[in-house]
Design goal:
With 363 residues, the protein is of the alpha+beta class. It has three domains: 7-211, no CATH class; 215-303, no CATH class; 310-359, no CATH class. The protein is 37% helix and 25% strand. The chain contains twelve helices and 17 strands. It is elongated, with a radius of gyration of 26 Å.
């Protein structure tokens, strides 16, 4: 029987931002430092999880944590013989596989890769199929359990129990199915913990994650997000926002040029909002800018792109202009909105003579 879920039966998360279409958990048991065939034991759940408040709570916590930590974007590998996950996704979205069948295939792929990773220690594969903002998503996360305590409602005794440790999320990926189907990149977001690559690389390999290496894309996205953040600042008039943005551009340039090999979101946030850097981090991870600007939390800045923060270039027909942002701040260059003109004040004697010599007959 195919897995079908009517839209009006889908559970809506708090705030209506996320509409769950289906979710399931499968278990992969493995002892750390073990490897090879038979080192992973798979326990499949027979049917999807009920769409109830408990699922909503776990989904919300997991997604919020992922949005804070999902710091890399990527694409799928193209060799269908090696990269089987996108093949299975295609079969699922074309309704050739039920949700349960699809997740079972994926768990098999993850398990095969896990057997080759001695430092991995298994976990519970949590699959969520949902829609948000008009787009369709698949979230896959390896959840860990920790010991906790509960209270017996009758005896009021404390009882030991196992609970999901949502603070530890080191292996997770989210596919924007809509972007993938339309060929828009990047469509894959995943967690790549610093210093934990040997432990978690198997998960990314299983899901065919290929790192999106366009530093130009990451740099331009971050600059655009910073500009939108400043534009959304409350209690400031337009002129004040212009001044703030000019200062932010200068600090961003210094931040990128000082971290040429790799820059992290925390450093960028300080450059954008030195007094409250956490507000910019929230803006691009869980706030208003999260869905618009898909920023990477660590990347190599593209010099050509971030140079535009300090130097303005443009063309008007055959006229090419280039000047520093500092020239605008010092009043040497200005834009006159009334006459729709670019004004250059205090041109050098050489420039004035060059103009006169070329427009005056007989010069």
């Amino acid at each position: 029987m195919r897995y079908k879920l009517r839209r009006d039966n889908a559970w809506k998360c708090q705030g209506g931002a996320m509409e769950i279409k289906g979710a399931v958990v499968h278990k992969l048991g493995k002892d750390q430092h073990s490897s090879g065939p038979g080192s992973v034991q798979v326990h499949l759940r027979d049917n999807p999880l009920p769409l109830d408040g408990t699922l909503t709570s776990v989904c919300s916590q997991t997604l919020n944590l992922f949005q804070r930590k999902g710091n890399n974007t990527g694409t799928f590998g193209v060799d269908v013989d090696i990269h089987r996950f996108p093949v299975r996704v295609g079969e699922f979205v074309r309704s050739q596989l039920t949700f349960s069948e699809f997740t079972a295939h994926v768990v098999k792929i993850i398990g095969d890769k896990m057997e080759q990773a001695p430092l991995s220690n298994g976990g519970h594969a949590f699959f969520v199929h949902y829609t948000s903002g008009g787009d369709e998503f698949l979230l896959i996360a390896m959840l860990k359990l920790r010991e906790g305590a509960g209270i017996d409602e009758i005896s009021l005794d404390l009882m030991p129990t196992l609970v999901i440790d949502t603070d530890k999320l080191h292996e997770a990926a989210r596919l924007n199915v809509s972007r993938w189907q339309f060929g828009d990149e990047p469509y894959l977001t995943f967690i790549k913990g610093r210093g934990a690559d040997e432990v978690t690389a198997y998960f990314r390999e299983a899901l065919s994650c290929v790192v999106y290496t366009s530093s130009r894309h990451h740099t331009s996205q971050m600059i655009a997000a910073a500009g939108a953040y400043v534009a959304d600042l409350p209690l400031l008039d337009q002129e004040s926002k212009k001044k703030v943005w000019t200062d932010v551009r200068e600090r961003l340039f210094d931040c990128f040029s000082s971290n040429k090999e790799e820059v992290v979101l925390a450093a960028i946030a300080v450059a954008v909002d030195p007094l409250q850097p956490h507000l910019f981090e929230e803006y691009v991870t869980t706030g208003a800018g999260a869905s618009t600007y898909q920023v990477s939390h660590q990347f190599k800045p593209d010099r050509t792109t971030y140079s535009s923060l300090r130097r303005i270039r443009g063309k008007m027909g055959t006229v090419a202009v280039a000047f520093e942002v500092e020239d605008v701040r010092q009043g040497r260059v200005a834009y006159d909105e009334n006459s729709d003109a670019l004004l250059i004040f205090g041109p050098s004697a050489e420039l004035k003579k060059e103009i006169e010599d070329n427009v005056t007959p007989g010069s």
